[in-house]
Amino acid sequence: MQALSIVGPGAADVRDAVAARVDGRVATVARTDSIDDVAAAGRFELAEDGGWTAAGDDRSFESLLDDLATDYEYAVISGFSKLRLPTVVVGDEEVPGDVLRRVDDASDLDPDALAAELDELDPYVTLESLIQRAKQSPLAERSGAIATFTGRVRAKDAEDDSRTTHLKFEKYEGVAEQRMADIAAELEERDGVFEVLFHHRTGVVVDGEDIVFVVVLAGHRREAFRTVEDGIDRLKDEVPLFKKETTEDEEFWVHDRA
User: Apex CA 14: angle with CA 9 and CA 15, to 5°?
Assistant: First the structure.
């Protein structure tokens, strides 16, 4: 799913204009300043045209975004300034995500250009969205196993280690994606392996967050497990991704320490 956050005065209008210009299933998400007591436990409304709205305080935004990633091709969001997503900022507000564009006034933004740029961003991918893709394979009816691997940011290797606060990943644009695609294609040549999917995040990933996913659709568990292990090993060995580690005491490129 391609995701874009817009913050600042006029963000909602820009959100709707961008959403109207993308080609695909799009979810728009907005923050409201007031939720009544009935909505506090969660309220869902289905309109006659099939559209729905929801309100409540019983879930996090991250869990909502994870759910959207399995069903939507785009998410355009306004009013959430704390998201680590590609962000368009109107005004001078500081945000944790990568600032795609910063302008003084919303009228300075071109929705057509933003919609085109949205397609070029790194997608928002979850493990569940990859599993859903695997299940849609034409060979899924021959599959009796889906095996997965999730790599996370580890805060410490040992109790007395300096705590890792975050990692930052950079890649050779185009090269890393092509190498992952090549590895997946090679692994899919194995007997009983029907689909291999990879996703590796770039940018800043903080302590406890997920970094990388491997999903394998296979006929049986043994080839599924073996292919997951070989897949993550080859990704780490062969894909040009560069990791900077920041701890409470220092910052360094991991390949310089190897």
Answer: 110
